[in-house]
Amino acid sequence: MLDGPRLAPLSGQPARQLVVLLHGVGADGHDLIELGRALAPLFPDAAFVAPNAPDPCDWDPARYQWFRLAVRDPHEYRLGAEAAAPLLDAFLDAELARHGLTDADLALIGFSQGTMMALQVGPRRKRPMAALIGYSGRIAGPDRLAAEVVSRPPVLLVHGALDEVIPIAAMHETAATLRAAGFGVATLERPALSHAIDPEGLTAGARFLQRAFATGAA
């Protein structure tokens, strides 16, 4: 079972929203929970959780990965994301049940490989979640999405134009794949940014979440 650091709602009341933060390769939940600390004042009724990925990282066993990246090609991404998806799905179900919430109250925020996992799991959930935000990532197995999509949460993709790990072209390809499958997608390209999340990207994500939680559609 996945686990990781959590933040209770700042309001001190039972959670009305759940934001799940998915880290990238060679990181852990403590890295991404800092996004939760930054967002929490804007979402005082939201609980935040950043689960550690299930496998030790190939190059640092003290850190984690969702799946191996020995060969960087879309076929491997798809196989890895598919294998890890049931664990993440079960975690989401358990966290929602813990707070007495539904998918309509849920947002996924991923970074890098965490974005791949968010895009793998989110569209295949039985009911649409409130929002899905992907930073510096891409979709795994784009050719499979149209045939496997079950729900279509609104999506925001944010990517640095100078990303040396996952090129900016991956964001445009991912957005095109999602739109072709009927998703509403917003994109933000950060011109001087590499493989990271900057304040402007975080602000864009916060505004996207505010609209999603307020109206049910971003």
UniProtKB/TrEMBL annotation:
Keyword terms: Hydrolase
Location of the Phospholipase/carboxylesterase/thioesterase domain: 12-210
Keyword presence, Hydrolase: yes
InterPro entries reported in the protein's UniProt record: AB_hydrolase_fold, LYPA1-2/EST-like, PLipase/COase/thioEstase
Highest taxon listed in the record's lineage: Bacteria
Signal peptide stretch: none
GO molecular function: hydrolase activity
Family to which the UniProt record says this protein belongs: Belongs to the AB hydrolase superfamily. AB hydrolase 2 family.
Protein name: Phospholipase/carboxylesterase
Organism (species): Kaistia hirudinis
